[in-house]
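ERR on first pass: missing label on line 2. Operator R.T. fixed the label and resubmitted. Corrected input:
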Amino acid sequence: MATVVGLLAQLQVHPVLRYLTLDGITTFVRLITHLKRDIIQPQPVDESNPTTAPTVLPEPLTLFIGNALGIPADTMDDFWSILKDYAWEMPTVPLMQDDYDLFKQWGWRCGLTAVSIYPPDDGCPNLSCDNQIPLKKEYRKKAVVYTRSAGVQPAWNTSLYCPSKYHLYNNKPKAP
Ligand SMILES: [Zn+2]
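pass 2 clean. output:
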């Protein structure tokens, strides 16, 4: 597990990230715990283990986090590299009103919403299917979610498709 001392030591020697505030780090952690599926879904299969932070942060996430926290774009790779393991291990933290505002200001334009809807598992639900790797064929549509704490929120509703079933379906012999 990443230790806070180790994390701070790495930040301290970085010419830009040494000026990060504690508020910035905790905001980052809150945001990331709500964005894990958005981070994993675009990754290659061998980077899609939900218990391990992927090496590279997808471009929309880099833009959103960079703008939301005021981190220069050319520093975001270092930022992710230093903080990813620490943030990934944290339990999901409830968002604050300021976080919803950050999504509205910087996230929506990157296709990221505070509320996102995914199937519970990223694998094929058909247990007899020969395709047992994370599904990467997806379809997204816009949704509106009514929340108790944050009012009406836009959301992306993501469906996943199994290519094995898809191909099977398309390769079915035509009836004579
Ligand atoms: Zn399948």
